[in-house]
Amino acid sequence: MKKTLLAAALLAGFATAGVAQAETSVTLYGIVDTGYGYSNYKYDRDGFQATSKSSGLVSGIVNGNRWGLKGSEDLGDGLRAIFQLEQGFDLGTGAPSSGKQFHRQSFVGLSSDNWGTFSMGRQYSAGVMAGDMNVNGWSLGDMDKVFGGVGYGNRIDNSFKYVTPDLSGFKFIALYGSSGSDRIDRIDGESYGGSERNSRVSVAATYANGPISGAASYDRQGTTNVEDSITSWHINGAYDFEVVKLSLAFGQDRNGKLGWGGNGGNFVNALGNAANLSAYNDLKTNNYHIGLSAPVGAGKLYAGVNYSTSNLDDGDKWGDDAGNLSTYQINYFYPLSKRTGVYTYATYGKNIGYVRDLKGTEAGVGLNHKF
Q1: Could you give the 3-state DSSP secondary structure of residue 353?
Q2: Low-confidence stretches of the chain (pLDDT beneath 50)
Q3: What is the pLDDT of residue 194?
Q4: What CA–CA distance (Å, rounded) separates 156 from 111?
Q5: Residues whose CB falls within 8 Å of the CB of residue 325, separated by 6 or more in sequence, listed in order
Q6: Residue 275 three-state SS
């Protein structure tokens, strides 16, 4: 009799645990991505020459390396409490890629099957979510080397974000955030201490239904570095013909390039054009993208072009030292399983960072694993 009661108690305990597990879940996940890469940047203008070459292990080519925790709790009636904490790191050294503990994402919120998702914390802008719809390039060939507002630098601190549920293929996204403090102290009517609020507004709409997908976004960032707010908008679309998928995008940046990854780093700055284009008064750029991808064997082959014109060649800016930026890439990703794949890529860029006659090539092979 005692054994029967004990067995019944154990079964009841397991059942209760099973119910609790179904109601609350926490997932450990991540991506590890690295390979061998080669890059060669050359600048040759008016008798002045400069080169920068590198080769060896490159961390995070297709995806930035990361690990994270995400979870949800069922609150009933289709409502869930959610959270996500995500940290990036350099796979080659093990070092964190930022001084922030969870710099990639850190947010908590509520999600409903009927009403959508509301979240608060450090999270991607609506522009990033819209740009993700049809982006296939990597490293120098990535769309964010030309377009502002869609790069992964657009993680917004202290932000509130709302995403609608799927509405017959449509989703709408709205974000508001501030990277500064709300607090402004005043003594006798004069500001003292505190910090001016540099607010970010980011909105987007996406659509995906069958072979058709598309998105549009608008971002505005207040800043003390330029006279007017920095703005960025873009629209993209794609159609999958099965044998080949065509993607197109167009966008404009004003007074800077939000989250831009195309400044060329220290090498460009060493050439004398050290201006930070993330915030640059009266900057205007027009950005274009075209991509083609097709299944080849079990993998996917991609070829894409990014191109951008600017007014940096005006006499009151860089003048003849500025040129139109363009990048060309071909890459191939071959899945070994649902979570692991190998890849190769080659890229050529011209007038990188809008610096006239600065050319660059990149190539490499690597391994990508998701867990």
Answers
A1: helix
A2: 1-21, 274
A3: 52
A4: 20
A5: 145, 146, 262, 306, 307, 308, 310, 349, 350, 351, 352, 353, 354
A6: coil
